[in-house]
Amino acid sequence: MAEKNFEVRKRALNIRRLRLERERAVFMKLGAKLRAYLFTGILVTAPVAITFYMAYKFIFWVDRLVNQVLPPQYKFDEILPVTVPGIGLVILVAALILVGMFAAGFLGRFFLRLGEWLVYKMPLVSTVYSLLKQVFETFFSSKTQAFKKVVMLEYPRKGIWILGFVSAELQGEVKDKLPGDMVGVFIPTTPNPTSGFLIFVPREDVTELSMSVEEGLKYVVTGGLAEPDERKKRKKS
Questions:
Q1: Where are the beta strands (DSSP E) in the chain?
Q2: Which of 28, 38, 164, 208 is the most buried (most CB within 10 A)?
Q3: What is the mean pLDDT of residues 68-93?
């Protein structure tokens, strides 16, 4: 009789243990699904939310900056009955367009050359101004392009490949001193592609890629996580 009661108790314990294991498995599966849904929600909403937040902060920063520069009688937060986000940005863009129109004329070019002549006469200021002018002309001029194409090359040794961007064609003393047909390649750093270094390599040592410069920059910023559009199209097809 005692042996029979022991067997019954043992079976009950086994049934209870199996029930607990099944419940634990169900909760673990549910937790895994909820965790996956959470990460998916973050992946979907985070880029949009951060983009809108940065745009919101930038617009209000420009509004405050423009409102401080305007004379007291023209401050739009006192003239308008309600706050209009972005009005400072509109005023700034309109002012920059007017400055550009003035600088394109004869009188504007005269004052611009006069101002540059005065700036270049200042020892420290001239160096900073010259550097900033070259940077802005490189990235904003419609006549030039910051980078021409995306390439790969073996660096810093054979067997190790790195992504780079071909800069403008070599000219002047640099081209005369280098042997053979060389190209300048800018090697960016991840995740900040604005920093990096410039190297000069033979043209035959670089492998051109079909991706655009914009896709190459995205690839560098994301550390290789953002696939080029051509690869995505091939996967879909």
A1: 149-154, 161-166, 182-188, 196-202, 207-208
A2: 164
A3: 77
Residue showing tokens 């549910």: 30
Both tokens of 233, joined, read 């199209």
> What CA–CA distance (Å, rounded) separates 81 from 178?
65
Based on its alpha-carbon atoms, the radius of gyration of the chain, rounded to whole angstroms, reads 31
* Cα 174 → chain centroid: 30
Q: Return the structure tokens found at 213.
A: 């410069």
In whole angstroms, what is the distance from residue 232 CA to residue 134 CA? 36
- For 11-21, b where at least 16 C-beta lie within 10 A, e where not — what string? eeeeeeeeeee
Is the pLDDT reported for residue 151 higher than 90?
A: yes
Nearest-angstrom CA–CA distance, 116 and 121:
9
Tokens 């802005």 locate to 136
Statement: residue 233 has pLDDT above 70: no
Both tokens assigned to 162: 């790195």
- Name residue 119's amino acid: V
The gap from C-alpha 167 to its chain's centroid, in whole angstroms, comes to 19
Residue 183, beta-bridge partner list: 201
